[in-house]
Write a structure and sequence with these properties.
The protein has 434 residues and is of the alpha+beta class. The protein has 2 domains: 234 residues, SET domain (Beta-clip-like, Beta Complex); 186 residues, Tetratricopeptide repeat domain (Serine Threonine Protein Phosphatase 5, Tetratricopeptide repeat). It contains 14 helices and 12 strands. Helix 11 packs antiparallel against helix 12.
Length: 434
């Protein structure tokens, strides 16, 4: 595999899409096409103590900040390197205590402001192809609800960060939050657990397709873009901005709402996978179209109800999943994506409740259809294999557990690279079990 692909890609004007990136040479699946350090990043509060605040590495025995006792670091170098950002929050966390509650978006915006004030007009290593100031904002497309949310974020920014930041004018803050909302990246680990948020200007140049040829993963605070298909010189590089599990109508709605464009990729134009994704259960009397439409509306509402209640993480949440699955199962096949969505949520609740057998049962029902619906090299698939592997090993089903882990690693070595700590860690664990 090629160690660094920066020289292998270039910025260009993509017909009908605006700015984009294209390959200057051939990339094979697994090749690194682009590596970009974060311009600014923030570790999510829930992962403090398990990950370094500075480099986001997952480690044991981290040292805590002597003042706030909230931030943890690998070593003195990481702590010193992060101080210009951590000082924005350190004294405020001490002063506000449990009332310190800026959103992750607000925390990230504060760091972007601080970074801009520190670097002034200097181009950073994260901006080799595009400056952070050049990120799209789509201000003309913002609805009233999003504008109100940004006003609330700006109020929180002033409330929690006024002692350490000189704020730009209000219009500039609106523009910044719009940029963050459109271009911020969610940093996740190999099991798709949320670790934090960041801005990677060069990576933000990559346009969307529901048939992506690259995937974005993370090595600490560095975004790595790897090919998941063979890419020829001159071919545009595409990633996916959204979860690809869902049918075309759902994907298009999500892209319009969050990114303000209509996707016209091959998958959206042909809707080739929609029939399999929306498979109807075989019944002696096939359900009428109106019944199917009603169940589709019910499925979407059930997903939204679960999202609103998700913070509870208890038996009631599992009951919501089970009731939804029972009702949708009257019409939808077990491979239908709305069934799969609720099964995945039920698996998560079982894991939280330490119902290992229940989680294993749901996971094994999910993983086969996932392989059908998702691209060949998908973290959604490998993350389920990882969970199944860990569950089987914990339940002393070692042979099956190792099989699941091997399937996960076959995907991970392409999307993360063989030298990534996540892949090496899982490889070591599997070898120890053999």
């Amino acid at each position: 595999m090629v160690p660094d692909g920066k020289e292998g890609i270039e910025k260009f004007q993509s017909p009908g899409k605006g700015r984009g990136l294209r390959a200057c040479r051939r990339f094979a699946a697994g090749d690194l096409a682009l590596s970009c350090p974060a311009y600014a990043c923030v570790l999510t509060v829930g992962e403090r103590g398990g990950h370094c605040e500075g480099c986001l590495s997952r480690r044991e025995g981290l040292s805590k900040c002597g003042k706030c006792k909230k931030a943890f670091y690998c070593n003195v170098d990481c702590q010193r390197g992060d101080w210009s950002m951590h000082k924005l929050e350190c004294s405020a966390m001490c002063a506000y205590g449990e009332k310190w509650s800026p959103s992750e978006t607000v925390r990230l915006a504060a760091r972007i402001i601080a970074k801009k004030q520190k670097t002034q007009l200097e181009r950073t290593v994260s901006e080799k192809m595009m400056l952070v100031s050049e990120l799209e904002a789509h201000l003309d497309k913002l609805g009233n609800e999003k504008k109100e949310m940004m006003e609330a974020d700006i109020a929180a920014l002033h409330h929690f960060y006024s002692k350490h930041l000189d704020f730009p004018d209000h219009d500039s803050l609106i523009h910044l939050f719009a940029q963050v909302n459109c271009n911020g990246f969610t940093i996740e680990d190999e099991q798709l657990s949320h670790l934090g948020s960041a801005v990677f200007p060069d990576v933000a140049l990559i346009n969307h397709s529901c048939c992506p040829n690259v995937i974005v993963t993370y090595r600490g605070i560095v975004a790595e873009v790897r090919a998941v298909k063979d890419i020829s010189p001159g071919e545009e590089i595409f990633t996916s901005y959204i979860d690809l599990l869902y049918p075309t109508e759902d994907r298009i709605e999500r892209l319009r709402d969050s990114y303000y464009f209509t996707c016209n990729c091959t998958e959206c134009s042909t809707k080739a996978k929609d029939k399999a994704k929306m498979k109807i259960r075989k019944l002696s009397t096939p359900p009428k179209q109106e019944v199917i439409k009603d169940m589709l509306r019910y499925g979407r509402n059930a997903i939204e109800d679960f999202r609103k209640a998700k913070h509870t993480k208890n038996i009631l949440l599992l009951l919501i999943c089970e009731l939804s699955l029972d009702k949708m199962g009257l019409v939808f096949d077990d491979t239908n994506v709305y069934i799969l969505h609720m099964m995945y949520q039920a698996m998560g609740v079982c894991l939280f409740m330490e119902d290992w057998e229940g989680a294993l049962s749901y996971g094994e029902k999910i993983v086969g259809p996932y392989r059908l619906h998702y691209p060949a090299y998908s973290l959604n698939v490998s993350s389920v294999y990882l969970k199944l592997g860990r569950l089987c090993l914990g339940l002393e089903k070692e042979v099956q557990g190792v099989k699941y882990l091997k399937k996960a690693m076959a995907i991970m070595e392409v999307v993360f690279g063989k030298d990534h700590p996540y892949h090496k860690e899982r490889m070591t664990n599997s070898v120890q079990r053999l």
